[in-house]
Amino acid sequence: MIRRNRIAIGLAAGLAVVLGLGVWSATGSGTNSKPVAQTETDLGILGDYGDSGQTPVLQEPAQAPATPAQQAAPETPTPAAQPPAAQPPAAAPVSSLKLVGKVVDKMGMVVQDSDGNTMYRFDKDTPQPETKSNCNNQCSVTWPPFLSETVPQLEGIDPALVKLITRADGKKQVAIGNWPIYRYSQDPGPGKWKGQGVGGTWFVIQPDGKRNVECLPPGVTAPAA
């Protein structure tokens, strides 16, 4: 009895397996199944890869060309350091003083300052080899030297004949033709020459540096040279 039951149970189990296989076969055959939507990957939209069963390789999108701003700018060469431009030499200061060589009545060629004062030379000065004034102390009070820190403005006088010398007190005095020039404190005014021939050593100076021997006072003899 027990054996019969076991056989019946075995047959029932086998039948169930057969029925299950039948159902599975019907479903897998595709006759009664609904179509399944295929994905873009299955359709190969991203590229034609032949066998749809193969795993498609994704194609990377093309890179946009780099814009000019993205391109590396060319390196600008650093200019070499330039030496400082040469500076023009400073202009010599212009003196506010002036000397004029001119012709005046009776005396002839003379040198005057901008105020019309007559200029003189002193025969006891040393013209060479180095120009030197020998009129100092009280002498320079009576005969004020024509002082200037720069060569004065010139009119009617050759600039090559004009220079500055250093006096014993360190001041600069103008000389014409190697002779220092002076003004006479006793002259009565511009255009006058009361100092002409004083002591036989003071004379009106000409634009070339030579002594003027015109209008000598009585008793004064013109030097030989």
Flag low-confidence runs. 28-53
Helical stretch tally: 3
Which class best fits the helix and strand makeup?
alpha+beta
Strand content: 15-25%
| Series of secondary-structure elements, N-terminal to C-terminal | HHEEEHEEEEEEE
Rg on CA atoms, Å:
63 Å
Tell me the strand order in the biggest sheet: 8-3-9-10
Distance between the termini: 185 Å
Backbone shape: rod-shaped
The main sheet comes to: 4 strands, antiparallel
- Count of DSSP strands: 10
> Whole-number average pLDDT?
78
Tell me the helix content: 10-25%
Keywords:
225 residues; alpha+beta; three-stranded mixed sheet; 3 helices; 16% helix; rod-shaped
Can you give a write-up of this model?
With 225 residues, the chain is an alpha+beta fold. The chain contains three helices and ten strands; from the N terminus they run H-H-E-E-E-H-E-E-E-E-E-E-E. A four-stranded antiparallel sheet has the order 8-3-9-10, with no helix packed on it. A three-stranded mixed sheet has the order 2-1-4, with no helix packed on it. Strands 5-6-7 form a three-stranded antiparallel sheet, with no helix packed on it. Strand 9 and strand 10 form a beta hairpin. The longest helix is centred in the N-terminal third of the chain and has 27 residues, at 2-28.
Summarize this structure briefly.
It is built from three helices and ten strands. It is of the alpha+beta class and 225 residues long.
